[in-house]
Each structure stands twice: as structure tokens, then as C-alpha cells.
Amino acid sequence: MSELKKEIHKRRTFAIISHPDAGKTTLTEKLLLFGGAIHVAGAVKSNKIKKSATSDWMEIEKQRGISVATSVMGFEYNDHKINILDTPGHQDFAEDTYRTLTAVDSVIIVVDSAKGVEAQTRKLMEVCRMRHTPVMIFLNKMDRDGKDPFELLDELEDELKINVCPLSWPIDSGQRFKGVYNIFEKRLDLYTPSKQTITESVGLKDINSPDLEKYIGGSLASKLRGDIELIEEVYPHLDIDTYLKGEVAPVFFGSALNNFGVKELLDCFIQIAPYPRPVEAIERVVNPEEETFSGFIFKIHANMDPNHRSCIAFVKICSGKFERNVNYKHVRLNRMLKFSSPTAFMAQKKETVDEAYAGDIVGLPDTGNFKIGDTLTAGENLHFKGLPSFSPEMFKYIENADPMKSKQLQKGIDQLMDEGVAQLFTNQFNGRKIIGTVGQLQFEVIEYRLLHEYGAQCRWEPISLFKACWIESDNADQLADFKKRKSQYMAKDKDGRDVFLADSNYVLMMAQQDFKDIKFHFTSEF
Ligand code: G4P
User: Fold this and answer.
1) How many A from CA of 35 to the centre of ligand 1?
2) Residue 74: Cβ-neighbour burial (10 angstroms; 0-12, 13-18, 19+)
3) What is the value of pTM for the model shown?
């Protein structure tokens, strides 16, 4: 195998997603401990946004600012290079998470075993499903009284719409939690509450051995045997290809806080999770093992200090090897650029790197050259697909509150949208600009940044909208008719695509009924 191929096959780039409080930060920290990337628990502050600060977004931004270093956490483990991409904990920044999911090769979902599947997880899973991203599920907090494990599996299948395959099985829960039977490795792992040590695995491999009783007692032993028999009947054996297609999710039970079940998850993860996968560009499919470099920008992290209008553009390397001080083509600008201080994120330190491989994420200091979705290559004109916009949940008209500063406002809005802070739609009927977001905080961020970075003042005006739908049709006449009839509700997105702004679910349903040849999409790529 060539050096390049070896490096690429070592890489596992993934994100951990969960509903706030399910244990994402705790799990991340434990994974980093295994990689030797950190030495003490409690070191990861991550993107975790404190609950107390939800209404104070400056505080949130400060925390986000600090979290640049934890945007990507790389470490080595058992001859693998692991890249964890962090996602914001606050749901108002869910769009950042959607975009981060375009840069990962797989996902670990953390679910609180007492709460089951929660709203945010359901939504993020939709994005994974759309992209056929392989997912593994960690059912956390088994040290607390939770739902029945069979019930939890049913809930995962129903709510996340994916088949599951348990690879470990809990023995009781809450205060009586004894441990798990590790189905994947066929061994009994006993639980001792402790925040820093690793799982105690006893030598027992065969659960039919009478020794099982010695470890967990008679009634739990027979229950475990019964459970495992049932699992073998009901759930399929793990088929790695099906997992890689995103059709079945392996499930582990454990307790991140007590570092129980985490190493098992990680060990299985490095065995079965995919190394970088081929990425589709408009022109062709790009294979990670190609010699020449290519990558795309999936995230831009702005510096909140107005005196330093610099940001970091995060590139996911899709193929080949990236090198410092080598000229690469910025395809949209049709310009060669070279980067003297690209950074990678090992452990929690940001370090300048000389080279990085497909699967890795590199941070490029930037002063405004990049937009979300931009492609960098060794020379080829490629445009990577797969960075869709999703219909926002909240909409407001944005108006200029200081007539002397309209140019600044325009520039500010354009740049913030390029950075992916929110989405801009321009109403075709009256030319008014509408900003769409996932949550209220984004409006506050925009207003603050327009004022402090661009000296512009904006004013928000209400508009009541249900969804933004990207429309398409093979029937040109019907499309033209629709656009004419709905002209007051037609807008263009930032790339000039037609968007129908439906003001209610009912209006949308009626439109779908009346215009059967038109397809209405809630994402910009279909
Ligand atoms: P998040 O990033 O998904 O939002 O969750 P985070 O890891 O911060 O965990 C949320 C809370 O759940 C934390 O408690 C954490 O200690 C706790 N937790 C995580 N894993 C487990 C587990 O396996 N068992 C139990 N019992 N609790 C767990 P907190 O009190 O909100 O925060 P902290 O003060 O402990 O940091």
C-alpha cells in the first residue's frame, strides 16, 4: 500500500451529536483521555454553552471563540488518527452542526437512556439519513435509572428511523447497574463507578458458563441469558456493509461519566467506522486516495475582535495531501493561493502543520477570501456538492436603521451570509431582504456584528413564514404560472435560486395539490 493510502486508511473523521445534556462533552473528553490527548478529566470545555447563558449571546460567543481550539480534536489511538469535529451545543446554532455533518465520514449519537430520543437528535439524524452517513449510538447514563433497554431500542428505531444492532447489553441499571455483556467482543465487562479508570473486563467469554452466576448472581444471570437469546433472534448480526451504507446503527450501552463502555465503543469504532469516503463534485466523484489535493470549506470561524477582521476557514481535505506553502487553486476566485500558517488541531493545541491528508481538517487563516462551500484544488476545476442549505425556522425582514450607512450594511450582510451565519432571501416582488435563522440568537448575533464590525445598524421587522421551499419542475409552463401566481411569495436565495416562502403548512399543501409537477424541497440540494 502506498504511504498516502496508508495515511488515509488510518483516519477516522466523525462528529458526536446529541440533544444538549445527553453527555456529548463528557464522552468527547473520555475519548480524548484514551488518545492521551488530555490527561485529566474536566479539561474539555468544548462548545458547551452553559444553560445559564442561553439568553446572553455575548457570553455564548465568548465561549464559542474560546472553542476554536476544540472545533476539531485530533489524536492518535491504536495506530489510527482520530478527528472529532465538535458541534455547537446550543440549538440556535444547529445550522453549524448541519454543515459540520457534511465534513464527517461517520457519526456517533449520544442518547440519554433515561430520556430516550430527544428533538435535536431526531433532527440531526435526518441530516445523517439524507447523506447516508454511518451512525453508531451510545446509550449513556446507564448508572441512572432509565428506560427498559428493549424499549430504548424500539424507540431508536421508531424515532430515528434506522435499524439497530445492539453490540453490548446492560445488566440492570441505575444503582444496581452491574455492567454489560459485550456482544461485539463476546465478554463480560463489570462496572465499577469511577471517573478515570477503564472498564474491568473479567475473563468470562461464554455467558452459558456457570461462572456468570458468580459475577452477577443467579437471577441477573438468567435474565441476561434470556435477553441475549432474544436479541439474537430479533436483531440481525452486525453486517458492516449495511452499517457503512447508513442502514443499521450499532448500539453500545454505558456511562460516559464513569468511563464505562467508552473504550469498547472506541475500539469497535476504529474497526468498523469508515476511513474517508469518496466525495461527489459536480464534475466527478473524487476519491480520497487520489494523489492530488482537493478540499472544501465547511465552516468559517470569525474573530469577534473588530480590530482583527480575520477568521479561520476550515477545510475538509477530500483527496490527496495538503502541504504548507504550496499553491492551490481557489476555484470560485480562479486564483492560486498559498498558505504559510495552516493549523491543525492535535489534542487541544492549535499547531502549524506542514502536511495533512484526506480526512483531516485544516484551519486556514483568512481575511475574506472564503465562503462556505468553496473548493480548493491542485488546479482542477471542481465544485464539491453536499453543502445544502436547510429551510430556516425563523424569518425576519432586515431593514437599514441608519440611512448614511447603507453600503456598510449591504457589505456586512453579504459577508455574514458568506460565513454562513444565517440565510438571506430577497423577495422578488418588493426587493425586501429576509433573514432566515434556526433560532432567535442568530438575529442577535447578526445585529451585534453588523454594528461592531461594519458600523451598520439594522432593524428587524416581523414576517410570518412557515418554511422556505426550493422549487423545481420539468414543466416550465407550470413553473412560470406558479411563480406568477405566487409572485408575492417568491424569493431568490443567495445563489439566485428560486425559493417559495410558504406562510403556512396549509398554503404549502394547497400549492402542492394545485401544482402537481412542481417539487417543493426543504433543502437547497436535491
Ligand atoms: P452535553 O455536552 O451533551 O450537553 O452533556 P454533558 O457531557 O455536559 O453532560 C450533561 C450532564 O450529564 C453533566 O452533568 C454530566 O456530568 C452528566 N453526565 C454525562 N454522562 C453521564 C453518565 O454517564 N452518568 C451520569 N449520571 N451523568 C452523566 P451536569 O451536572 O450538568 O454538569 P457537570 O457540572 O457535571 O459538568
Assistant:
1) 21
2) buried
3) 0.88
